[in-house]
Amino acid sequence: MTVRLPEPLPEGVRALGADVAGRAWLSTLATVLGEVVENWQLEVGEPFEDASASLTLRAVRAGEPVVLKLQFPHREAEQEAAALLEWDGDGAVRVLAHDPERHALLLESCLPGTPLFELEQDAALDVLIGLLPRLWRRTDQPFTSLADEAGHWAETLPLSWERAGRPAERRLLEAALAAIEELAPSQGEQVLLHQDLHTGNVLRAGREPWLVIDPKPLLGEREFGLAPIVRGAELGHSRAHVLHRLDRLTSELALDGGRACGWAFVQTLAWSIEETGVWPEMIEIARWLLDAR
Predict the structure, then answer these.
(1) Which among 99, 140, 148, 196 is annotated as catalytic?
(2) What's the pLDDT tens digit per position in 30-39?
(3) Contact of 230 with 245, CB cutoff 8 Å
(4) Is 196 noted as a catalytic residue in this protein?
């Protein structure tokens, strides 16, 4: 079946063509789209413009709205389907079909789909305090461990820092490496974590008031799971906002504030300096978190 790709593709999808792997994936995208549309009997509509590592399309199957996600194969996305299947709709979107060979997911649609960051900060935190314990479940599935991911950051962050022209002071780099050495081997109970649970990845829905999307799953201690919320500028970008989120979440979820602060600092710095660019506002948040430890 021939299905036309959206023209133009969303900016984040087009940006994948900057390297060889991305160009190779883009060259197959029209074929893959046609195959999954035929296999799953879909009518496809407009793309979600904010998708950055996948072509994500509104679609209809058997008269019901669904979401089709064609993933660019990369390390952080390879276990997304497994995490969503593990949650099985409990606080997260349901997987309706999965084609691992084509890196394709068919997901339930969140309607109206407005993001959690449209709420005031404390109202959004109320929602997250209710959702997080439901997502933090023990599992025997072989998800990437937080210890292994932290080891990856310890290996790659110094190289990224040098290649980017040392965009942050050395004390931040040295503190992150020391925090990884301290935190990774001394973790508490290991549970399934959504390491990118910012408030743009929690959507208003019909089946439940709010559902989580787009996990980059890890298996690690609960304190790490606060990191994307603590640094999430959508709920306010200031030292006071960041520390308020940290204090409220650790207090109401009965977590170790020092460990949560340390993990938030480490992941924020690691994600602020990447091959695709440097995010100064995230480096600023890393400073606030380091100084609060």
Answers:
(1) 196
(2) 999 999 999 9
(3) yes
(4) yes
pLDDT at 257: 98
Distance CA 5, CA 51 (A): 15
Question: What is the per-residue pLDDT for 276?
Answer: 74
Give the CB-side neighbour count of residue 19, counting CA atoms within 13 A.
7
The confidence score (pLDDT) of residue 3 equals: 81
Choose among 149, 152, 143, 154: nearest CA to 219: 143
Query: What's the pLDDT score for residue 274?
Result: 85
Question: Among positive and negative, which fits the CA dihedral 148, 153, 159, 160?
Answer: positive
Tell me the one-letter amino acid at 188. G
Measured between alpha carbons, how far is 26 from 23 in angstroms, rounded to an integer? 5
Tokens of 227: 């990191």
d(CA 210, CA 186): 33
Query: How far apart (Å, rounded) are the C-alpha atoms in residues 281 and 293?
Result: 19
Coil, strand or helix: which one is 202?
strand
Q: Residue 225 in contact with residue 151, Cβ under 8 Å?
A: no
Residue 3, judged by CB atoms within 10 A of its CB (0-12, 13-18, 19+), counts as middle
How far is 273 from 215, CA to CA, in rounded Å?
Answer: 21
* Report field, pTM of the whole predicted structure over 0.85: yes
- Supply the pLDDT for residue 19: 87
First to last CA, the chain: 57
Q: What is the rounded CA–CA span in Å between residue 52 and residue 54?
A: 6
Q: Which of 222, 221, 219, 225 is nearest to 140 (CA)?
A: 219
DSSP 121: H
All residue ranges of the chain with pLDDT < 70 are 1-2
d(CA 171, CA 96): 47
Question: What pLDDT shows up at residue 51?
Answer: 80
Q: What are phi and psi of 133, to 5 degrees?
A: -60, -25
